[in-house]
């Protein structure tokens, strides 16, 4: 397909859609599917057919809409009305009310059973009102298994712009200007990374999309790849053009079969349409993407371990330098970015880097996706401007703590992160502010805890995780995490003394300073942050000195 | 082992599947993990003779194949049971009582994570995080994700699937 054919195709599929007056989206994210969304989808399709409405009403499966614990969710467009807890029994009532009587069905509106006032336009609800969707835009509105849907939503326009209006240097300049930082957790400036790989001269370079979302309590990448796989694919191609790579790999967790299925389908569709492969859109640019399925090792989220895993080996990290930008996959210059980072690239290229940098804070530009879970009323997937406070996220968006209990702490960054206590509820969620509290942004898992959580056990839980996931290559991590875990267990069992606590703190610093890779270096974080903010809980479990 | 294996290779569709996958990947040693995924998908676990077959086909030392298999949680050297119950122990599920589910499974079936009943009917495992945090606590019963799991209901569902009462 050449360039003007893309525009023609987009116009054609748009025209095909025009006779639909309504679009009914059934959330088929992994959470809603486990609540029975697929049955609802089929039932709804039958219902529309039996009422003879199939000419004007379109029913499609979509990716995650956000409020995961209210599922299955059904959204009516263009009204933006969301119904919650839809099942095969109440679906007829929804259709009758919304499409025949032309009025919303009040008792099934999103949050109708828990809020004083439910909104007909869901975007006016506090859950959505404070959000700003860039990476997740279109997720929940389009069918992730249809390339046509993505084209109508403006898909592949950014790739088109990059290939024909921008030089690779200009693409990199836009990414730099956007000031986006790596969304996998470490926050390295993405533009700088691209520029570094671009500068290395090599016969072959690679683009890798890191979808090895291993942190417990994180499901951002999964939701993006399930809800809008073409966006990631398009951005990977743009990255390939910018740095001079012709081959990309998407490394996806084996635990996420739906994501793998949808992403592989997207690759097939894009290749068939001529948006991947040789001479993309009639240009000289060639790019192919392959999926690599992870086999359940958290350390593979570390870039050098991930590369080893793609090469079919044990996923153990190696010392850096050389960084993958210089010597990565099969020794070639390699660009590795996280799924969420890629999800923001296409909009950045389309709207310009400056546009993106206007959102967020001076040092942390743009938006961040969080997976909100734990003892919170409305858990799910959210995207907010960087710098939104924790209080706004927990109380405005998340609707506060379950059963009116008291907020105790929020955990960010999983086993590499830390806990933020109630005293710091007004912390701005950006890279620096979280770091100053002893936590990290991490990939975006945000678990809320109430008074029932024992912070020593929380630290033990994360240490057990790091201990199990340590690849065993370096001693500080392999032995240190085990020793720290056992000491935490001892404190939890009420058998420890002050000497044990001192030793624990000392060990934590050794492991942090001497581990080979990020997994070990950050493994003490949950321990150190709970010690910092909840030291009295540790002290209260310690045996008095004799 | 290898001789008898060659005989059965002619008839076993699972081995044909693995052979086809290796051929598709051009017998590249790099494709080891992909092949292992195919093999585990076919057998439910990785029998030792299959690993030997893969090692020979990809011209890899058996030690390299074993070290890779044992490194990754996803791969298993023994059967995980006809029916499986995987309890998610991610942070959200931990906060919301995954341990209570594991305790109930142990008291009902005598199984700790990683164990299988003597008749191979049921296996219990834990997962690091299945990403269904909004529905914590979550479990996966025979590949179906169940959310907001109640311990009693979990046991009932398993009984229904396995016929163990």
Percent in helix of chain A: 40-55%
Oligomeric state: heterodimer
- Report the top-level CATH class of the largest domain in chain B: Alpha Beta
The strands making up the biggest β-sheet of chain A line up spatially as 10-9-13-11-12
**What is the fourth-level CATH superfamily of the largest domain in chain B?**
Glutaredoxin
Q: Specify the biggest β-sheet of chain A.
A: 5 strands, mixed
Low-confidence sequence ranges of chain B: none
Order of strands across the main sheet of chain B: 2-1-3-4
Report the count of strand segments of chain A: 13
| Residues in β-strands, percent of chain A | 5-15%
Q: Please name the CATH architecture of the largest domain in chain B.
A: 3-Layer(aba) Sandwich
CATH topology of the largest domain in chain A: Rossmann fold
> What is the strand tally of chain B?
4
- Number of separate structural domains of chain A: 4
Compute the number of helices of chain B: 8
Radius of gyration from the alpha-carbon trace of chain B, in angstroms:
18 Å
């Amino acid at each position: 397909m050449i360039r003007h054919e893309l525009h023609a195709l987009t116009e054609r599929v748009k025209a095909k859609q025009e006779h639909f007056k309504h679009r009914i989206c059934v959330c088929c994210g992994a959470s809603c599917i486990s609540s029975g969304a697929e049955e609802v989808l089929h039932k709804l399709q039958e219902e529309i057919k039996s009422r003879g409405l199939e000419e004007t009403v379109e029913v499609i499966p979509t990716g995650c809409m956000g409020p995961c614990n209210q599922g299955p969710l059904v959204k009516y467009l263009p009204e933006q009305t969301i119904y919650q807890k839809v099942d095969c029994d109440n679906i007829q009532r929804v259709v009758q009310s919304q499409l025949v009587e032309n009025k919303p069905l009040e008792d099934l509106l999103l949050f109708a059973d828990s809020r004083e006032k439910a909104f007909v336009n869901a975007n006016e609800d506090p859950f959505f009102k404070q959000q700003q969707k860039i990476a997740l835009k279109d997720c929940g509105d389009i069918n992730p298994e249809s390339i046509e849907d993505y084209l109508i939503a403006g898909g592949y326009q950014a790739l088109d712009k990059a290939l024909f209006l921008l030089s690779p240097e200009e693409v990199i300049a836009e990414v730099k200007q956007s000031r986006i930082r790596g969304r996998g957790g470490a926050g390295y400036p993405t533009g700088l990374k691209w520029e570094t790989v671009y500068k290395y001269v090599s016969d072959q370079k690679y683009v890798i999309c890191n979808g090895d979302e291993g942190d417990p309590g994180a499901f951002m990448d999964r939701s993006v790849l399930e809800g809008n796989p073409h966006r990631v694919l398009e951005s990977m191609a743009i990255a390939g053009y910018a740095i001079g790579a012709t081959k990309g790999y998407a490394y996806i967790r084996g635990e996420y079969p739906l994501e793998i299925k949808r992403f592989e389908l997207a690759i097939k569709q894009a290749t068939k349409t001529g948006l991947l492969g040789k001479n993309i859109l009639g240009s000289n640019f060639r790019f192919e993407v392959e999926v690599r399925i992870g086999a359940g090792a958290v350390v593979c989220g570390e870039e050098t371990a991930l590369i080893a895993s793609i090469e079919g080996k044990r996923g153990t990290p190696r010392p850096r330098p050389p960084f993958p930008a210089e010597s990565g996959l099969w020794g070639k210059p390699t660009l590795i970015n996280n799924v969420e980072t890629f999800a923001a690239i296409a909009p950045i290229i389309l709207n310009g880097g400056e546009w993106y940098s206007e959102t967020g804070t001076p040092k942390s530009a743009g938006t961040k996706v969080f997976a909100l879970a734990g003892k919170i009323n409305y858990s799910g997937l959210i995207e907010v401007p960087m710098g939104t406070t924790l209080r706004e996220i927990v109380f405005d968006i998340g609707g506060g703590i379950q059963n009116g209990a008291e907020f105790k702490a929020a955990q960010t960054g999983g086993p590499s992160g830390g806990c933020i206590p109630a005293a710091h509820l007004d912390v701005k969620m950006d890279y620096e502010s979280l770091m100053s509290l002893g936590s990290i942004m991490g990939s975006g898992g945000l678990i809320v805890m109430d008074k029932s959580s024992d912070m020593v056990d929380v630290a033990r839980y994360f240490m057990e995780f790091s201990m199990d996931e340590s690849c065993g290559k370096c001693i500080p991590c392999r032995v240190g995490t085990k020793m720290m875990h056992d000491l935490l267990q001892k404190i939890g069992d009420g058998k420890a003394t002050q000497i044990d606590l001192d030793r624990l703190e000392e060990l934590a610093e050794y492991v942090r300073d001497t581990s080979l890779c990020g997994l070990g270096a950050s493994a003490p974080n949950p321990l150190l942050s709970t010690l910092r903010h909840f030291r009295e809980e540790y002290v209260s479990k310690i045996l008095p000195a004799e | 082992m290898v001789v008898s294996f060659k005989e059965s290779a002619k008839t076993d569709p699972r081995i044909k599947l693995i052979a086809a996958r290796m051929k598709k990947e051009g017998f590249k040693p790099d494709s080891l993990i992909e092949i292992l995924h195919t093999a585990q998908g076919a057998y439910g676990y990785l029998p030792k003779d299959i690993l030997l077959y893969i090692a020979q086909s990809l011209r890899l030392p058996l030690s390299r194949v074993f070290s890779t298999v044992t490194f990754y949680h996803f791969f298993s050297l023994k059967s995980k049971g006809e029916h499986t119950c995987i309890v998610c122990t991610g942070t959200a599920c931990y906060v919301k009582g995954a341990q209570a589910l594991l305790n109930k499974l142990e008291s009902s079936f005598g199984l700790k994570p990683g164990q299988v009943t003597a008749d191979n009917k049921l296996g219990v495992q834990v997962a690091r995080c299945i990403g269904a945090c909004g529905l914590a606590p979550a479990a996966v019963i025979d590949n179906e994700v169940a959310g907001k799991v109640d311990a009693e209901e979990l046991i009932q569902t398993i009984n229904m699937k396995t016929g163990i009462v």
